[in-house]
Design brief:
The protein is mainly β. The protein is built from 5 helices and 13 strands.
Length: about 300
């Protein structure tokens, strides 16, 4: 009896090994693939850093007969946080192509993915924001202080390594990881408007400054309409399930979690206090650093692979 048990057990092992070997052989070779689906972005931290002089220092608000103040605050050109916020872009759409090689269980792949995310609007905020904290009394209540991000898209190329859990079934689960780069672009817009003249002249400024300059400042807007772009390094974790539709073609689903470095760019304001985008000296361009952190997302995509 023991002899037959051993023989049957050995036969099962041999057949199992043969089946796995056949599956491995059947899953070897180069392949191409397509995928599309929905990416869900993580929250994005936006920061605008630059020189922010008090409004009373702005030379272009003063008539020629009056000289603007020249105190320490007006001469301070130290960059500070002008606006800081956390925004939550809406889900978007992604599509891509892949090229890879199956070597039984291990699989190696290069992928290109085009990803487009939704936009978001949030109140202009941040405890360290010079624009909000230092000039809060100046802003019009009829023009809400907001920050917007949009046109948020990326072209990413990553090299992935997978392990396929092969069996005699038509279903093949897998896990993987990848590294690569992403050319990412995010547009940004904010606008702040000062109170109309009647309200603006009632503000108690300390130190005070000439009424003629206050009248010139009243009702003016400052606008930053810019974008930050750059190629950043990142990594991702992947998992999925393929179904063998035919001997060489499979359909499936893939989940991924990706994370990339911060996107930062030097930008120039569109308008400052109703005039050209210059600092309080009336000459130096008002440049700022626009930075987006927390660039990442998770996504679910449908896949199609064809092996040569």
């Amino acid at each position: 009896m023991r002899f037959w048990v051993v023989c049957v057990g050995a036969g099962v092992c041999v057949l199992g090994s043969a089946g796995n070997a056949a599956a491995q052989e059947n899953r070897s070779g180069f392949y191409v693939g397509l995928e599309m689906g929905a990416p869900f972005p993580s929250a994005v931290d936006s920061t605008v850093t630059g020189v922010s002089h008090p409004t009373r220092c702005d030379r272009l608000l003063y008539p020629a007969s009056i000289s603007p103040p020249d105190d320490a605050a007006c001469r301070d050109n130290t960059p500070a946080v002008m606006a800081a916020n956390t925004l939550a872009p809406d889900p978007g759409f992604s599509s891509g192509v892949t090229f890879g090689y199956m070597a039984g269980g291990p699989r190696f792949e290069v992928e290109y993915l085009n990803r487009y995310q939704g936009d978001d609007v949030q109140p202009l905020g941040g405890a360290e924001s010079a624009v909000v904290a230092d000039k809060n009394t100046e802003w019009s209540r009829d023009a809400p202080l907001e920050e917007w991000i949009g046109d948020y898209h990326a072209h990413q190329v990553l090299a992935n390594v997978y392990y396929d859990f092969l069996s005699d079934s038509s279903w093949t689960p897998y896990v993987g990881a990848g590294v690569g780069g992403s050319a990412t672009e995010v547009s940004y817009y904010t606008q702040v408007t000062r109170k109309p003249e009647a309200e603006y002249l009632q503000i108690e400024f300390d130190p005070d400054w000439p009424e003629a300059a206050k009248r010139a400042a009243a009702g003016t807007t400052s606008i930053l309409d810019a974008k930050a772009d750059g190629t950043v390094f990142g990594f991702q974790l992947l998992a999925g399930l393929d179904y063998a539709w035919t001997e060489r073609t499979s359909l499936g689903g893939k989940a991924r979690w990706s994370r990339f470095g911060d996107v930062s760019d030097e930008v120039t304001w569109t308008q400052v206090r109703g005039h050209a985008p210059v600092r309080a000296d009336g000459v130096t361009p008002l440049d700022s650093t626009l930075e987006f952190g927390g660039i990442g997302y998770w996504a679910v995509t449908f896949t199609l692979k064809h092996r040569f």
